[in-house]
Design brief:
about 325 residues, mainly alpha, Rossmann fold, Tyrosyl-Transfer RNA Synthetase, 2 domains, 3-stranded parallel sheet, two-stranded parallel ribbon, 13 helices, 5 strands, about 55% helix, binds adenosine-5'-diphosphate, binds tryptophan, tryptophan-tRNA ligase activity, aminoacyl-trna synthetase, ligase, EC 6.1.1.2, nucleotide-binding
């Protein structure tokens, strides 16, 4: 059995980029009985940006409801909340002591902040807290604790999986074979789903389409997607069109081929947008209703998470014992 591990941070409305890049591939993996999925809500990672008690709780429940509404079967997957697994934080510290500071200096989220500060000619670490700096170490603990073979993520997370591999090798080399080396999995066609403005769809750019927004709003947001001024009759390049990338994430292979052909013949942007709405709404209609039902019953979600935590801890407690013995802590 191969293990598959991924986490989503409860940092805001889940958008279709999160869905197409991370959640949908993870759910597709669940159809394979040879795989053992461990999916979780990365609320400890969210602490870095969410500093509001009620909001963190609310967003955590929303991420849980999203996974379940989209078809995650909690009987089949081990589905839990990161903060319910204290073993992760012990492993985080052990790994921190094998991590060179230089490696963290090069991690992209931190590096991006430093570059931004340098450009603004202010102290390079302005606005950087240790949660951000250590972020890749905790993420490595999440992955290595459950012996992940595969980690489905969006392209922006690849460097973190590579760091987890480095740390696993470092640990194995120092204390003997303990961790599997994880691989990332990227859904190729949607490696980076564009947002309304054509940049990567991201909560930080406020260019998102929330996954479960009401049909009217969905339609309105799709209309706002930036296009060029080419005429309907003009030939269009599907590879450079954000609309096409989004369409591909929701359409069948045949529908995608047909759309590609129509791009090459010339098609009006309005028509592409209508087709996009149709395929998106087709896929999201039922989960949207389920989501609304679930979110109205937070106690039920909590129950599921409690079962998930117990299941996850039956693995992590054993693994941590092995790790501590190797290190000399037990
Ligand atoms: P955001 O950039 O909106 O803050 P997160 O960093 O919380 O999103 O990402 C959660 C998961 O969704 C990650 O695996 C990430 O790679 C994936 N993801 C986020 N945005 C996109 C996107 N635009 N296209 C594809 N995958 C994405
Ligand atoms: N860092 C991931 C993100 O920003 C979330 C995450 C935390 C994660 N731990 C993980 C993803 C472990 C995969 C595996 O989206």
């Amino acid at each position: 059995m191969k293990r598959i591990v991924t986490g989503i941070k409860p940092t805001g409305d889940i958008h279709i980029g999160n869905y197409a890049g991370a959640i949908k591939p993870a759910l597709n993996f669940m159809k394979d009985n040879q795989l053992e999925p461990f999916y979780f809500i990365a609320n400890m990672h969210a602490l870095n940006s969410v500093k509001d008690t009620d909001l963190l709780k609310k967003q955590t429940l929303e991420v849980a409801a999203t996974w379940i509404a989209l078809g995650l079967d909690p009987q089949k997957a081990t589905f839990f909340r990161q903060s319910d697994i204290p073993e992760l934080f012990e492993l985080n510290w052990i790994l921190a002591n094998l991590t060179s500071k230089g490696l963290m200096n090069r991690a992209h989220a931190y590096k991006a902040m430093v570059d931004q500060n340098n450009r603004a000619d202010i102290d390079m670490d302005t606005g950087v807290n240790m949660g951000l700096f250590n972020y890749p170490i905790l993420m490595s603990a999440d992955i290595l604790m459950f012996n992940a073979d595969v980690v489905p993520v969006g392209k922006d997370q690849v460097q973190h999986i590579e760091i987890a591999r480095d740390l696993a090798e470092q640990f194995n080399h120092t204390f003997g074979e303990t961790f599997k080396l994880p691989n990332y999995y990227i859904e190729k066609e949607v490696a980076v789903l564009p947002g309304l403005d054509g940049r990567k769809m991201s909560k930080s750019y406020q260019n998102t389409i929330p996954l479960f927004c009401k049909p009217k709003r969905l339609q309105k947001l799709i209309k706002q997607i930036k296009t060029d001024s080419s005429l309907p009759s003009e030939r269009k390049d599907p590879t450079s069109s954000p609309l096409f990338t989004m369409y591909q994430a929701f359409a069948t292979a045949d529908e995608t081929l047909e759309m590609k052909r129509r791009f090459e013949l010339g098609i009006g942007w309005g028509e592409v947008k209508e087709s996009l709405y149709t395929v998106m709404n087709r896929e999201l209609e039922k989960p949207r209703v389920k989501y609304e039902e679930l979110i109205a019953q937070p106690a039920e979600i909590e129950k599921l998470l409690a079962v998930g935590a117990e299941k996850a801890r039956s693995y992590s407690a054993k693994k941590l014992k092995e790790i501590k013995e190797k290190v000399g802590l037990l």
